[in-house]
Design brief:
By secondary structure, the protein is mostly helical. Helix content is 64%, strand content 2%. A two-stranded antiparallel ribbon has the order 1-2. A hairpin with an 8-residue loop joins strand 1 and strand 2. Helix 2 packs antiparallel against helix 4 and helix 4 runs antiparallel to helix 7.
């Protein structure tokens, strides 16, 4: 998408105060930083970390839903879920390509993931126990993703911002698909409504954790916001998600599993908002460190896919080398 003409090079200059100040002026003026522009090493490192983690999350995120394609309750549901999983694969490819413009290869990023140096979203380390979980993922997880990702369309780094435009459009369909599944279940039998409530009970708190640690513990947020890689803090996005989703749960007739949830008319500058109960950040740290219920299975599946695809990558490299050789011969003959 972006990287084919860049040869893996990215401009990182000696970081004098004058250079850093000029770079920040470009950021403050809402200029887009492009791959061949000079940039601070820290800016590049932050982008590589964030974009690669985002890409890994899209690819690993295919696993819990892909497991349900053959077990979806109708042909219509199978087709819709298959399309969604296909979209997520495409999102991962867009993002890997955007990261490659920063001089890091897809192989490096994948090795970092498989060796534990890179992360993916903690939400994908939870199991999908029923069809209602697929609805809850679309409704909650993709809604949280949209809250996080729409501001990224204005990210200061051009390739990332442009990739996010299409991704966000497709994520909006995924969210509506999930909500429609939940609506169908809530309008169904008592057993189906119980399934929907059970899925909400299990996915609510992990969905809140998707926004990352509280602002007081977020190591990267301040600098990322200064560079306009991200636009809003973790806590502000989490509050926005809660305010929207609680009302959707009420429409579905479901109970949000937070006994401390309450409306506060003084929040959001007097417009009101919901205050939520305590989030179990110990669980978040445990899951993000590789000890989630499905963490081993997710990485094992990713490792197997990478190893099984080795012959495809080798064939692609051989074909590319053969094409380059043929082009050189044609150039030599024509000259």
């Amino acid at each position: 998408m972006y990287s084919q003409a860049l040869d893996g090079k990215v401009a990182v200059k000696s970081e004098s105060m004058d250079f850093l100040e000029e770079f920040q002026k470009r950021i403050d003026a809402e200029e887009k930083i492009e791959p061949m522009d000079a940039m601070p090493a820290g800016y590049r490192k932050t982008l590589v970390r964030q974009i690669s983690q985002h890409a890994h999350s899209e690819i690993v995120g295919m696993l819990p839903e892909g497991n349900w394609i053959t077990r979806a309750p109708s042909l219509r549901r199978k087709i819709a879920l298959l399309a969604k999983v296909q979209d997520e694969c495409g999102h991962g490819l867009y993002l890997y390509a955007a990261a490659e413009t920063l001089g890091v290869s897809r192989e490096e990023m994948t090795e970092d993931l498989l060796e534990g140096r890179a992360k993916y979203s903690s939400i994908f380390n939870y199991p999908t126990l029923s069809w209602a979980d697929i609805g809850a993922i679309g409704w909650l997880v993709d809604s949280a993703a949209i809250m996080n990702q729409i501001p990224l369309c204005r990210c200061s780094y051009g390739p990332y911002a442009r990739a996010m435009v299409r991704i966000c459009k497709e994520e909006s369909f995924h969210q509506r698909q999930g909500f429609e599944i939940m609506l169908a279940l809530c309008r169904g039998t008592d057993r189906q409504r119980e399934m929907a409530q059970d899925a909400l009970n299990r996915w609510w708190w992990p969905s809140l954790m998707m926004f990352g640690p509280p602002d007081s513990e977020s190591r990267h947020s301040d600098q990322s916001m200064t560079w306009k890689i991200k636009r809003f803090s973790n806590d502000s996005l989490r509050r926005k998600f809660i305010d929207a989703t609680v009302k959707q749960a009420e429409f579905l007739g479901l109970d949000v599993p937070d006994p401390d949830l309450k409306w506060d008319p003084d929040l959001n500058g007097g417009e009101g908002g919901f205050r939520h109960g305590a989030i179990d950040w110990e669980e978040f740290r445990r899951v993000i460190s590789g000890f989630g219920p499905m963490a081993k299975e997710r990485l094992a599946a990713r490792r197997k896919a990478w190893e099984d695809g080795a012959w495809v990558r080798e064939a692609a490299r051989a074909h590319a080398a053969k094409t380059r050789s043929a082009n050189r011969r044609d150039s030599a003959v024509s000259s």
